[in-house]
Amino acid sequence: MIQKELRRLYYKCINYLSFQWSNLRPSGPKVLFKRFPANIAPDHHCILCNIRSSNRLCRSCQETSLIKPQYQCTCCGVMMHHHALFCGECLKDTPDFDRTFSPYLYQPPLSNMLISFKQSHDFYAGKTLADIFVKDIKQHYMQYHLPYPDFIVAMPQHWYKQWKRGFNHAIFFAEAASKHLSIPLFKKVIRRKNTPDQKGLSRKQRLLNLNQAFDISTILNGEHIAIVDDVMTTRASANALARELKKAGAGQVSVWVLARTPK
User: What is the pLDDT of residues 45-63, one digit of tens each?
Assistant: First the structure.
């Protein structure tokens, strides 16, 4: 029992030091790693099966453990049981965003990794999820020959909630996407209302909860904006932000979420 606890603390320390190392100024790593060839892949251990891998999640675990929906609504990304462009909810009540990209279902082990990242500051899990998220976005846009959006915006948190958690996970994913896809971040948006947790609320309550929750401090000129978040459950948060972005002058609004909660 003691050995198991010591092993857990060891890996927690390693994850923390890895995160701190990644935040060093650019000049540090360049000098320290100057002697090593640039084409050598970093050495990791798969977060799920613990085998040595060039990525934080090995290819086998990504293909067999993470669940991808076969059919999805092109508008909100919800899983469907047959092929159709739109789900019944989007046909009945069209959201203010135009399309959603969501590569995975919010189910274990992905949901466990995400909870560990958000609640326990497991940044190794966070970097693992960011890596596969950005890779899937890139493959999707290349496969369908889609142009990238003009800007990426992270789903904002109220300053008090972000202070309590210590970071905004949506910003973590948005910065990774911005860096690897060379898309600038849009930072002129804040969450001005400290809204209660959306869990357990009805659809009507969620809509009232998010009424005038966001404030955009600039005028847009028809740009295509992509909202980045971790999970979509009821569309309410993404819809509220998309509405404000279009009021500010956005031409199109896409939503990029790592996972979609199945109904």
Answer: 899 999 998 899 999 999 9
Lookup: tokens for 4: 């198991």
Residue 63: which of 122, 132, 5, 12 has the closest Cα? Answer: 132
Domain boundaries, the chain: 67-260
Q: Which long-range contacts (CB under 8 A, 24 or more apart) does 140-147 make?
A: 140/101, 140/103, 147/224
Count of C-beta atoms within a 10 Å radius of residue 256: 26
> pLDDT band for position 192 (50/70/90)?
confident
Cis status, amide bond into 109, omega within 30 of 0: yes
> Looking at the chain, which runs of residues are DSSP E strands?
44-45, 52-53, 71-72, 79-80, 99-101, 104-105, 151-154, 189-191, 214-216, 224-232, 252-260
pLDDT tens, 23-42? 443 434 443 333 434 444 55
Q: Which CATH class is domain 67-260?
A: alpha beta
DSSP 166: S
